[in-house]
Amino acid sequence: MPGTKLDAQYFGRASWTRRLGCALKDLKSDGRAGPFVGSHVGVIRQLLTDPDAGPRVVINIGAEALLNFLATGCYKNLYEHPVVGGRRREPTPERIQVDKWLSLPGAHRFYFAAVALGGAGVRFYGEYCMVLRPERIPPDTRIFDRDSYDLLQPPLSGRGDDAMQRLAGCLRGTWQADLVDMLLMKMLPRLPSTRHLITSGQVSGLVMTDQEFVEVHLEGPIQPSDIEQVTQLPDEPAMEASIAQRQAGRQAPSAVELLWLKRRREVAESLAMAKVPHGLATQGGRGYQWT
Questions:
Q1: Choosing a second label site near 11 at 20 to 30 A (CA), which of 218, 238, 262, 278?
Q2: For residue range 221-274, what is the model confidence (pLDDT) as tens digits?
Q3: pLDDT of residue 128
């Protein structure tokens, strides 16, 4: 319902560090934390602050858009009216409204990304996951604790523009100062209360679960040289091999499958020419998130 009362601690105006401290104190005082919560938090902090295997900013993109990006060196947001699938796109009224609530200083200069710890990003937005180099992310890069489109849905929606801007301000932070505490605050309700410590694979899944992620508002421009690597889910090369096998045999693939296969091969060639590493996504195994 519009105007539904939200958790005052989580949706408060205190720093993410203070919010997390209060939440941990409450968990321990009422017995909900479990004996391992302190150790869980310690393990997560260690993983999230590892300079080599820690979190990255990722952008998912489709094959056609990736080929165009590699060819032109120009990555466009909706305000720059990119041509996707043969059609020129532009920001929807919903996107414009959400960006107003986010108080982005010149929305056309910002590009939306997500935080990941291994994996292949948000597959919904494209099968190729561009992992950006850590040095490309300035310390004051804006982050938002969820997909900003969530502001359009209950129970967050329906509060009037001023209230929505205040709410969005409560959910905002910056990369260096707030990322670890923001992620921990989001993870607390889902931490295992078992008899063993949390693993890096579990942490990876908590950082990004399907379309649940921390959003990054990255000021551009973005160039191919900013890409550390491109990852994909393992099932896509398996599908590619299946189509190629049928193509070599008596069962002819469909025209759509052949086009998909052709584009994948073009992407692989373009990434090789641009000297961008291209591999399969991993989640488990400490230190192997980005190898």
A1: 218
A2: 999 999 999 999 888 888 888 998 888 887 888 999 989 999 999 999 999 999
A3: 96
Domains in the chain: boundaries: 16-280
CB atoms within 10 A of CB 87: 7
User: Which SS3 state, helix, strand or coil, does residue 249 take?
Assistant: coil
Token pair in block for residue 112: 């939306």
* Cα distance between residue 38 and residue 34, in whole Å: 9
Helices (H), ranges, 188-289: 200-207, 235-248, 255-273
Whole-number Å distance between alpha carbons of 66 and 79: 18
User: Do 237 and 261 meet the contact criterion of CB atoms below 8 Å apart?
Assistant: no
Q: Give the pLDDT of residue 252.
A: 84
pTM greater than 0.85 (yes/no): yes
CB-count exposure of residue 146 (10 Å: 0-12, 13-18, 19+): middle
Facing residues of 57 across strands? Answer: 115
Helix (H) or strand (E) holding 114: strand 110-116
C-beta of residue 111 within 8 angstroms of C-beta of residue 47:
no
Residue 273: exposure state from Cβ atoms within 10 A (0-12, 13-18, ≥19)? exposed
Looking at residues 44-62, what average pLDDT do you find?
A: 95
